[in-house]
Amino acid sequence: MSSSVAGPDCCGGFGNVDFRQADVCVMTRLLGYVDPSDPCFVAAILTITFNPLFWNVVARWEQRTRKLSKVFRSPYLACYSLGAAILFLNVLRSHCFTQAMLSQPKMESLDNPTAYRVGLALLGIGSTFVLSSFFALGFTGTFLGDYFGILMEARVTTFPFNILDNPMYWGSTANYLGWAIMHASPTGLLLTVVVALIYMVAIQYEEPFTAQIYQQKTSSSRKRS
Question: pLDDT tens digit string along 162-183?
Fold first, then answer.
């Protein structure tokens, strides 16, 4: 597959840009570099899609049945086990993401020191959000402890949660974006879009359910008092 793409005239030229089609043009250019049938690309898509589905399904099942807590005889051990599984799946996802980038062409316009430094900065920002989120929430707070009945006393409002909602997810997305730019990889950029979209779906799925858990906690506390 050729790694060359058409110039700006394919989008109508810079002098008369239709901004409504700008996103389509960018996506078209990215797709010009990507072979969707490549096994590494398919594996990356599957792991990106599967991971949030896995932890949401398992966590909701645990919240309804307490089966994992019964198997491990402790909600904490059950949560630690799910957390370990999630960490393994995230390592696998990152590996598949990297292999998909390495198996497909680079974008020449990104293959320069300036772009590399931008990618490195994004990686640093993303890692800061991810690590600071983990330290603010703790292991059980990070890995769905509330679904195991391990509830936090109050909503975390310290950094980075005072900067943006869901900093763990957006920090992870920034990591993938930075990694893709550092590798000058249009495949990585496209996969980063998939990561962001999957996280957006996960947020819509998780936040109302988590809010419901804490509402039940509040209601139970009021009844006791």
Answer: 999 999 999 999 999 999 999 9
| DSSP characters over the chain | -------GGGGT-GGG--GGGHHHHHHHHHHTT--TT-HHHHHHHHHHHHHHHHHHHHHHHHHHH-HHHHHHTSHHHHHHHHHHHHHHHHHHHHHHHHHHHHTSPPPGGG-SHHHHHHHHHHHHHHHHHHHHHHHHHHHHHHTTGGGGT---SS---STTTTT-SSHHHHHHHHHHHHHHHHTT-HHHHHHHHHHHHHHHHHHHHHHHHHHHHHHHHHHHHHHH-
Query: How confident is the model over 45-94, as pLDDT tens digits?
Result: 999 999 999 999 999 999 999 999 999 999 999 999 999 999 999 999 99
At residue 7, the pLDDT reads 39
Q: What are the binding residues for S-adenosyl-L-methionine?
A: 124-126, 206-207
Residues comprising the binding site? 124-126, 206-207
Rg of the chain over all Cα atoms, to the nearest angstrom: 21
- CB of 104 within 8 A of CB of 189? no
